[in-house]
């Protein structure tokens, strides 16, 4: 079993926490856009409170460990590894609770290039524990606004984990899916879950719009978030997101494997 100390060391060595690749400039830009309610960073969340830039900076300092000094405007951002560990423990507890209830679960990621393996391992474990891992709206086309204009993507699943692909892109050859912040995929999946299967998931696990989009609709949602993703932490502060784990969400996929082992052990889902 991976110890807390060993995982803390790994978080720092892999730059999942501590000084991370996400820059202070990028994070502050996201906070400004969120305060202006720019849909590109809202991720499907409609906040109940009027969050200003300074409010968001204080929240992110509390939730992630970034500097709360507004004069600090450059350099790498910082995530406190103790907050990451606490988040992973809470994340594992939610998985364990769902597994005990054999609750239906939906997994989805907007970061398939990095995080697909992490979620696949969790989906496999939840399925082995008797949970229904839902895959609604397989193959459904979704129009998503991007910086290049509106583009059509296809909802797809890999071993129970949802993502979007560009139509015509073959799912083999190392192309795991497209990066997206949009909440539209989870909305489409949830609608199909009700219309076709007659039930909603009791838990949504993922990142970006998958978490915020589900949480906004009142479904329990847990996920991972970087310092430039304030929406998940706002959702957690307002009670719409159950757990937001602060970490860099764009390091090499292999660096998330120790986190997988840690979460599965903590959730008592190791096989």
Which shape, going by the Cα principal axes?
Answer: globular
Q: Reading side by side through the largest sheet, how are the strands ordered?
A: 4-5-6-3-7-8-9
Uncertain runs are: none
Terminal Cα span: 12 Å
| Beta-strand percent range | 15-25%
Q: In angstroms, what is the radius of gyration?
A: 17 Å
Helix and strand succession?
HEHHHEHEHEEEHEHEHEH
Number of strands: 9
Portion of residues within helices? 40-55%
Count of separate DSSP helical elements: 10
Mean pLDDT: 95
Biggest β-sheet strands, sense, barrel: 7 strands, mixed
Kindly name the structural category.
alpha/beta
Q: Which secondary structure elements does this structure contain, and how are they paired or packed?
A:
Elements: H1 4-13, E1 18-23, H2 24-35, H3 39-42, H4 53-63, E2 76-79, H5 81-101, E3 105-108, H6 112-128, E4 141-146, E5 149-158, E6 161-165, H7 184-197, E7 203-207, H8 208-216, E8 221-225, H9 230-237, E9 243-246, H10 257-266
Parallel strand pairs: 3-6, 3-7, 7-8, 8-9
Antiparallel strand pairs: 1-2, 4-5, 5-6
Helix pairs in contact: 4-9, 5-10, 6-10, 7-8
Relevant terms:
single chain, 271 residues, alpha/beta, seven-stranded mixed sheet, two-stranded antiparallel sheet, 9 strands
Give me a quick take on this structure.
With 271 residues, the chain is α/β, with parallel strands linked by helices. Helices cover 43% and strands 18% of the residues.
Question: Could you explain the architecture of this structure?
Answer:
By secondary structure, this protein is of the alpha/beta class. 43% of the residues lie in helices and 18% in strands. It has 10 helices and 9 strands. Helix 9 links the parallel strand 8 and strand 9. Helix 6 runs parallel beside helix 10. The longest helix has 21 residues, at 81-101. It is globular. The mean pLDDT is 95.
């Amino acid at each position: 079993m991976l110890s807390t100390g060993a995982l803390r060391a790994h978080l720092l060595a892999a730059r999942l926490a501590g000084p991370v690749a996400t820059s202070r400039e990028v994070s502050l830009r996201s906070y400004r856009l969120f305060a202006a309610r720019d849909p590109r960073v809202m991720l499907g969340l409609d906040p109940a409170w009027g969050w200003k830039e300074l409010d968001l900076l204080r929240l992110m300092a509390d939730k992630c460990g970034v500097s709360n000094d507004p004069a600090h405007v450059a350099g790498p951002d910082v995530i406190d590894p103790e907050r990451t560990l606490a988040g992973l423990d809470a994340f594992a507890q939610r998985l364990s609770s769902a597994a005990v209830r054999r609750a239906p679960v939906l997994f989805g990621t907007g970061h398939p290039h990095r995080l697909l393996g992490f979620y696949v391992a969790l989906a496999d474990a939840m399925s082995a524990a008797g949970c229904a891992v839902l895959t609604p709206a397989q193959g459904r086309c979704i129009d998503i606004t991007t910086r290049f204009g509106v583009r059509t993507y296809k909802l797809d699943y890999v071993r129970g984990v949802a993502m979007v692909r560009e139509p015509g892109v073959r799912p083999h050859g190392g192309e795991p899916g497209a990066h997206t912040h949009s909440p539209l995929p989870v909305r489409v999946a949830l609608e199909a879950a009700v219309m076709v299967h007659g039930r909603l998931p009791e838990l949504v696990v993922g990142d970006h719009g998958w978490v915020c989009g589900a949480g906004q609709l009142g479904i329990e949602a847990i996920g991972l978030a970087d310092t430039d993703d304030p929406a998940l932490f706002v959702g957690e502060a307002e009670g719409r997101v159950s757990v937001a784990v602060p970490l860099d969400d764009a390091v090499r996929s292999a660096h998330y494997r120790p986190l997988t082992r840690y979460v599965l052990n903590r959730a008592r889902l190791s096989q």
